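Notes from the 1:1 (GR / supervisor)

We went over the backlog. Supervisor wanted to see one worked example end to end before approving the batch request, so GR pasted a single chain during the call. The sequence is below; no edits were made to it. Supervisor asked that the structure be written out right there so they could see what the output format looks like.
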Amino acid sequence: MVIRGLALIAVVVFVVGCAPSATAPTPTQTATPLATPSPSPTPVATTAAPSPTPGPHANPVLGYAVTLPTSWRVSDCISRLDLREPVYLGFDLLTWRTVAEDQDLAVPGGTGPSGAFSWVVMIEVQISSQAVIEFATARAGGNGGQVQTTTLDGKPAVRTFDAANNSLGYYASTAGRMYSITLVPGFDQRPAQLSNATFDSIARSVTFTTPVARPTPTPAPIITPGVEAAADAVAAAFAASDADRLRDLVRPTCWFNSGYNQSEGSSTSRDELIAGLRTAFAQGLKVTVEPRPIMSAPPMPGSFWIWSTWSIYGTPPRVTPQSNVQLVFDQIDGRWYWVGALFNATR
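Structure output shown during the call:
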Protein backbone atom coordinates (compact mmCIF):
# COMPACT_ATOMS: atom_id res chain seq x y z
CA MET A 1 0.00 0.00 0.00
CA VAL A 2 1.18 3.50 -0.72
CA ILE A 3 0.61 5.91 2.13
CA ARG A 4 -2.12 8.22 0.99
CA GLY A 5 -1.60 11.89 1.68
CA LEU A 6 2.15 11.62 1.66
CA ALA A 7 2.80 11.24 -2.05
CA LEU A 8 3.63 14.88 -2.66
CA ILE A 9 6.49 16.66 -4.37
CA ALA A 10 8.97 18.48 -2.16
CA VAL A 11 8.71 22.20 -2.66
CA VAL A 12 12.32 22.56 -1.63
CA VAL A 13 13.29 20.72 -4.80
CA PHE A 14 11.22 23.15 -6.81
CA VAL A 15 12.48 26.31 -5.17
CA VAL A 16 16.19 25.64 -5.36
CA GLY A 17 16.14 25.56 -9.13
CA CYS A 18 15.57 22.00 -10.27
CA ALA A 19 13.40 23.34 -13.00
CA PRO A 20 10.65 21.24 -14.54
CA SER A 21 10.29 20.97 -18.29
CA ALA A 22 9.18 24.12 -19.98
CA THR A 23 6.31 22.08 -21.39
CA ALA A 24 4.30 21.43 -18.29
CA PRO A 25 2.10 18.36 -17.92
CA THR A 26 -1.59 18.83 -18.49
CA PRO A 27 -2.94 20.16 -15.20
CA THR A 28 -5.65 18.22 -13.42
CA GLN A 29 -6.09 20.34 -10.31
CA THR A 30 -5.02 17.41 -8.18
CA ALA A 31 -1.67 16.26 -6.95
CA THR A 32 -1.25 12.56 -7.54
CA PRO A 33 -1.62 10.19 -5.87
CA LEU A 34 -3.56 11.77 -3.00
CA ALA A 35 -6.26 10.68 -0.68
CA THR A 36 -9.29 12.56 0.47
CA PRO A 37 -8.21 14.87 3.26
CA SER A 38 -8.42 13.41 6.72
CA PRO A 39 -8.10 15.13 10.09
CA SER A 40 -4.54 16.16 10.79
CA PRO A 41 -2.64 13.63 12.91
CA THR A 42 -1.70 14.64 16.40
CA PRO A 43 1.50 16.66 16.07
CA VAL A 44 4.65 15.48 17.83
CA ALA A 45 7.66 17.30 19.21
CA THR A 46 10.21 18.59 16.74
CA THR A 47 13.14 17.53 18.90
CA ALA A 48 14.12 14.00 19.78
CA ALA A 49 12.18 12.65 22.74
CA PRO A 50 13.68 10.15 25.19
CA SER A 51 13.58 6.63 23.83
CA PRO A 52 10.28 5.02 24.82
CA THR A 53 10.41 1.93 26.97
CA PRO A 54 9.24 -1.36 25.52
CA GLY A 55 5.64 -2.16 26.23
CA PRO A 56 2.16 -2.43 24.79
CA HIS A 57 0.63 0.06 22.42
CA ALA A 58 -3.13 -0.18 22.07
CA ASN A 59 -5.36 1.25 19.36
CA PRO A 60 -8.92 0.84 20.65
CA VAL A 61 -10.49 2.08 17.40
CA LEU A 62 -8.60 -0.35 15.18
CA GLY A 63 -9.05 -3.02 17.84
CA TYR A 64 -5.58 -4.33 18.59
CA ALA A 65 -2.59 -4.05 20.90
CA VAL A 66 1.09 -4.70 20.17
CA THR A 67 4.25 -4.87 22.26
CA LEU A 68 6.93 -2.46 21.05
CA PRO A 69 10.64 -3.25 21.37
CA THR A 70 12.95 -0.89 23.19
CA SER A 71 13.21 2.53 21.46
CA TRP A 72 10.31 1.80 19.09
CA ARG A 73 7.29 4.09 18.87
CA VAL A 74 4.17 4.77 16.81
CA SER A 75 4.65 7.46 14.16
CA ASP A 76 2.02 10.12 14.78
CA CYS A 77 2.94 11.86 11.54
CA ILE A 78 2.15 8.88 9.31
CA SER A 79 -0.38 6.78 11.25
CA ARG A 80 -4.01 7.66 10.75
CA LEU A 81 -7.66 6.65 11.00
CA ASP A 82 -10.00 6.85 8.04
CA LEU A 83 -13.17 8.26 9.54
CA ARG A 84 -15.30 8.26 6.39
CA GLU A 85 -14.00 5.25 4.49
CA PRO A 86 -16.45 2.33 4.89
CA VAL A 87 -13.91 -0.47 4.20
CA TYR A 88 -10.40 0.74 4.99
CA LEU A 89 -10.32 1.75 8.66
CA GLY A 90 -6.78 2.99 9.06
CA PHE A 91 -3.25 2.00 10.08
CA ASP A 92 -0.47 2.52 12.58
CA LEU A 93 3.15 2.85 11.50
CA LEU A 94 5.67 1.47 13.98
CA THR A 95 9.20 2.86 13.73
CA TRP A 96 12.56 2.53 15.48
CA ARG A 97 13.63 6.04 14.47
CA THR A 98 13.41 9.06 16.74
CA VAL A 99 11.07 11.94 16.01
CA ALA A 100 14.04 14.08 15.01
CA GLU A 101 15.34 11.42 12.62
CA ASP A 102 11.95 11.11 10.96
CA GLN A 103 11.70 14.88 10.71
CA ASP A 104 15.00 15.03 8.85
CA LEU A 105 14.26 12.09 6.57
CA ALA A 106 10.70 13.12 5.66
CA VAL A 107 9.12 11.10 2.81
CA PRO A 108 10.89 12.13 -0.41
CA GLY A 109 8.49 10.26 -2.70
CA GLY A 110 9.25 8.61 -6.00
CA THR A 111 8.87 4.92 -6.70
CA GLY A 112 8.54 2.77 -3.62
CA PRO A 113 8.82 3.52 0.10
CA SER A 114 11.50 5.97 1.13
CA GLY A 115 12.68 8.17 3.97
CA ALA A 116 10.65 7.85 7.16
CA PHE A 117 8.32 5.47 5.33
CA SER A 118 10.90 2.71 4.85
CA TRP A 119 12.14 -0.17 6.98
CA VAL A 120 9.20 0.18 9.32
CA VAL A 121 6.26 -1.99 10.36
CA MET A 122 2.70 -1.16 9.34
CA ILE A 123 -0.46 -2.51 10.94
CA GLU A 124 -3.49 -1.96 8.70
CA VAL A 125 -7.12 -2.80 9.39
CA GLN A 126 -10.00 -3.11 6.98
CA ILE A 127 -13.42 -4.68 6.78
CA SER A 128 -13.28 -7.96 4.86
CA SER A 129 -15.26 -11.18 4.54
CA GLN A 130 -12.47 -12.81 2.56
CA ALA A 131 -10.72 -15.89 3.94
CA VAL A 132 -7.38 -14.92 5.43
CA ILE A 133 -5.49 -17.40 3.25
CA GLU A 134 -6.96 -15.87 0.09
CA PHE A 135 -6.28 -12.34 1.30
CA ALA A 136 -2.66 -13.11 2.19
CA THR A 137 -1.95 -15.15 -0.92
CA ALA A 138 -3.13 -12.33 -3.18
CA ARG A 139 -0.66 -9.99 -1.52
CA ALA A 140 2.26 -12.37 -1.27
CA GLY A 141 2.23 -13.41 -4.91
CA GLY A 142 3.23 -10.03 -6.25
CA ASN A 143 6.28 -10.00 -3.98
CA GLY A 144 7.43 -13.52 -4.82
CA GLY A 145 6.37 -14.61 -1.36
CA GLN A 146 5.15 -17.89 0.03
CA VAL A 147 2.40 -18.47 2.58
CA GLN A 148 2.14 -20.49 5.77
CA THR A 149 -0.92 -20.89 7.97
CA THR A 150 -0.52 -19.98 11.62
CA THR A 151 -2.43 -18.18 14.38
CA LEU A 152 -2.17 -14.81 16.06
CA ASP A 153 -3.77 -14.44 19.47
CA GLY A 154 -5.63 -17.64 18.75
CA LYS A 155 -7.16 -16.30 15.52
CA PRO A 156 -6.67 -17.79 12.03
CA ALA A 157 -3.61 -16.17 10.46
CA VAL A 158 -1.17 -16.49 7.61
CA ARG A 159 2.54 -15.68 7.51
CA THR A 160 4.11 -14.69 4.20
CA PHE A 161 7.84 -15.10 3.68
CA ASP A 162 10.51 -14.97 1.01
CA ALA A 163 12.90 -17.59 -0.36
CA ALA A 164 15.30 -16.99 2.54
CA ASN A 165 12.45 -17.58 5.04
CA ASN A 166 12.41 -13.91 6.05
CA SER A 167 8.93 -12.85 7.06
CA LEU A 168 7.18 -10.36 4.78
CA GLY A 169 3.91 -10.05 6.65
CA TYR A 170 1.31 -11.57 8.90
CA TYR A 171 -2.43 -11.49 8.20
CA ALA A 172 -5.20 -12.32 10.65
CA SER A 173 -8.97 -12.28 10.49
CA THR A 174 -11.34 -11.69 13.37
CA ALA A 175 -14.86 -10.30 13.78
CA GLY A 176 -15.16 -9.30 10.12
CA ARG A 177 -11.89 -7.36 10.15
CA MET A 178 -8.65 -8.17 8.35
CA TYR A 179 -5.42 -7.21 10.05
CA SER A 180 -2.26 -6.83 7.97
CA ILE A 181 1.06 -6.61 9.80
CA THR A 182 3.65 -5.97 7.14
CA LEU A 183 7.29 -5.08 6.78
CA VAL A 184 7.78 -1.92 4.71
CA PRO A 185 11.17 -2.31 3.02
CA GLY A 186 13.46 0.40 1.72
CA PHE A 187 16.11 0.78 -0.96
CA ASP A 188 18.99 0.97 1.49
CA GLN A 189 20.38 -1.89 3.55
CA ARG A 190 18.06 -3.43 6.13
CA PRO A 191 18.86 -1.85 9.51
CA ALA A 192 19.83 -3.91 12.53
CA GLN A 193 16.91 -2.41 14.44
CA LEU A 194 14.50 -4.29 12.17
CA SER A 195 15.91 -7.78 11.99
CA ASN A 196 13.71 -10.66 10.93
CA ALA A 197 13.53 -11.78 14.56
CA THR A 198 12.40 -8.30 15.64
CA PHE A 199 9.68 -8.19 13.00
CA ASP A 200 8.44 -11.66 13.95
CA SER A 201 8.43 -10.69 17.62
CA ILE A 202 6.37 -7.55 16.94
CA ALA A 203 3.89 -9.39 14.74
CA ARG A 204 3.42 -12.30 17.12
CA SER A 205 2.86 -9.94 20.06
CA VAL A 206 -0.32 -8.57 18.47
CA THR A 207 -3.53 -9.22 20.39
CA PHE A 208 -7.03 -8.30 19.30
CA THR A 209 -9.48 -6.24 21.33
CA THR A 210 -13.11 -5.32 20.96
CA PRO A 211 -13.03 -2.17 18.81
CA VAL A 212 -14.66 1.04 19.96
CA ALA A 213 -16.57 3.23 17.52
CA ARG A 214 -14.60 5.48 15.21
CA PRO A 215 -14.68 9.16 16.21
CA THR A 216 -17.28 11.30 14.50
CA PRO A 217 -15.76 13.05 11.47
CA THR A 218 -14.93 16.67 12.08
CA PRO A 219 -17.51 19.01 10.51
CA ALA A 220 -16.36 20.93 7.46
CA PRO A 221 -14.38 23.97 8.65
CA ILE A 222 -15.62 27.48 8.07
CA ILE A 223 -13.62 30.57 7.21
CA THR A 224 -12.86 32.46 10.39
CA PRO A 225 -10.76 35.53 11.22
CA GLY A 226 -7.98 33.11 12.14
CA VAL A 227 -7.96 31.65 8.62
CA GLU A 228 -7.95 35.13 7.09
CA ALA A 229 -5.12 36.24 9.39
CA ALA A 230 -2.99 33.25 8.34
CA ALA A 231 -3.59 33.97 4.65
CA ASP A 232 -2.75 37.64 5.12
CA ALA A 233 0.41 36.82 7.08
CA VAL A 234 1.69 34.44 4.40
CA ALA A 235 0.94 37.03 1.73
CA ALA A 236 2.86 39.71 3.63
CA ALA A 237 5.82 37.42 4.30
CA PHE A 238 6.09 36.48 0.62
CA ALA A 239 5.76 40.12 -0.42
CA ALA A 240 8.78 40.87 1.75
CA SER A 241 10.63 37.67 0.70
CA ASP A 242 10.95 37.06 4.42
CA ALA A 243 11.96 33.43 4.94
CA ASP A 244 12.18 33.82 8.72
CA ARG A 245 8.59 35.02 8.93
CA LEU A 246 7.44 32.22 6.65
CA ARG A 247 9.12 29.70 8.92
CA ASP A 248 6.88 30.80 11.77
CA LEU A 249 3.82 30.33 9.54
CA VAL A 250 4.68 26.77 8.45
CA ARG A 251 3.53 23.86 10.59
CA PRO A 252 6.31 23.08 13.10
CA THR A 253 5.62 19.35 13.37
CA CYS A 254 5.61 16.50 10.88
CA TRP A 255 6.20 17.75 7.33
CA PHE A 256 5.26 20.32 4.73
CA ASN A 257 3.43 18.78 1.76
CA SER A 258 3.60 20.02 -1.80
CA GLY A 259 2.85 18.71 -5.25
CA TYR A 260 3.38 19.33 -8.93
CA ASN A 261 0.47 18.44 -11.18
CA GLN A 262 0.67 14.94 -12.62
CA SER A 263 3.99 14.26 -11.01
CA GLU A 264 5.45 12.26 -8.17
CA GLY A 265 5.76 13.98 -4.86
CA SER A 266 6.97 13.90 -1.27
CA SER A 267 7.15 15.88 1.93
CA THR A 268 9.88 17.89 3.61
CA SER A 269 10.71 19.31 7.01
CA ARG A 270 10.03 22.93 7.82
CA ASP A 271 13.73 23.76 8.07
CA GLU A 272 14.53 22.20 4.69
CA LEU A 273 11.62 24.03 3.09
CA ILE A 274 12.73 27.39 4.47
CA ALA A 275 16.35 26.79 3.46
CA GLY A 276 15.16 26.16 -0.08
CA LEU A 277 13.00 29.28 -0.10
CA ARG A 278 15.88 31.36 1.22
CA THR A 279 18.05 30.16 -1.67
CA ALA A 280 15.29 30.79 -4.19
CA PHE A 281 14.73 34.35 -2.93
CA ALA A 282 18.45 34.98 -3.40
CA GLN A 283 18.11 33.71 -6.98
CA GLY A 284 15.36 36.20 -7.74
CA LEU A 285 12.15 34.40 -6.79
CA LYS A 286 9.21 36.75 -6.25
CA VAL A 287 5.90 35.39 -4.97
CA THR A 288 2.65 37.31 -5.25
CA VAL A 289 -0.10 35.96 -3.03
CA GLU A 290 -3.81 36.63 -3.46
CA PRO A 291 -5.17 36.31 0.09
CA ARG A 292 -8.77 36.49 -1.14
CA PRO A 293 -10.86 34.65 -1.98
CA ILE A 294 -10.16 31.83 0.44
CA MET A 295 -11.43 28.59 -1.05
CA SER A 296 -12.30 25.20 0.42
CA ALA A 297 -11.61 21.69 -0.90
CA PRO A 298 -7.84 22.01 -1.40
CA PRO A 299 -6.02 19.59 -3.72
CA MET A 300 -4.18 17.92 -0.84
CA PRO A 301 -4.78 17.40 2.90
CA GLY A 302 -5.84 20.68 4.46
CA SER A 303 -8.91 22.87 4.91
CA PHE A 304 -8.54 25.96 2.71
CA TRP A 305 -6.37 27.32 -0.09
CA ILE A 306 -5.53 30.57 -1.89
CA TRP A 307 -3.83 31.48 -5.15
CA SER A 308 -0.27 32.67 -5.59
CA THR A 309 2.07 33.30 -8.51
CA TRP A 310 5.74 32.32 -8.32
CA SER A 311 7.98 34.21 -10.71
CA ILE A 312 10.63 32.87 -13.04
CA TYR A 313 14.02 32.79 -11.28
CA GLY A 314 17.46 31.21 -11.35
CA THR A 315 20.54 31.40 -13.52
CA PRO A 316 20.61 29.76 -16.99
CA PRO A 317 20.57 26.92 -17.69
CA ARG A 318 18.87 26.20 -14.35
CA VAL A 319 15.90 28.51 -14.62
CA THR A 320 12.59 27.73 -12.98
CA PRO A 321 9.59 29.00 -14.95
CA GLN A 322 6.68 30.97 -13.56
CA SER A 323 4.01 28.89 -11.86
CA ASN A 324 0.51 29.31 -10.49
CA VAL A 325 0.57 27.79 -7.01
CA GLN A 326 -2.24 26.88 -4.63
CA LEU A 327 -1.22 27.52 -1.02
CA VAL A 328 -2.97 25.19 1.43
CA PHE A 329 -3.82 25.93 5.07
CA ASP A 330 -4.92 23.76 7.98
CA GLN A 331 -5.56 24.10 11.68
CA ILE A 332 -3.21 22.33 14.09
CA ASP A 333 -3.66 22.57 17.86
CA GLY A 334 -5.97 25.56 17.44
CA ARG A 335 -3.68 27.58 15.15
CA TRP A 336 -3.81 27.97 11.37
CA TYR A 337 -0.66 27.12 9.40
CA TRP A 338 0.55 27.03 5.83
CA VAL A 339 0.84 23.26 5.31
CA GLY A 340 1.15 22.62 1.58
CA ALA A 341 1.44 23.88 -1.99
CA LEU A 342 0.38 22.64 -5.41
CA PHE A 343 2.53 23.96 -8.28
CA ASN A 344 1.54 24.45 -11.90
CA ALA A 345 -2.14 24.57 -10.96
CA THR A 346 -4.78 25.48 -13.52
CA ARG A 347 -6.56 28.80 -13.11
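Supervisor's comment: The longest helix spans residues 225-239.
Batch request approved.
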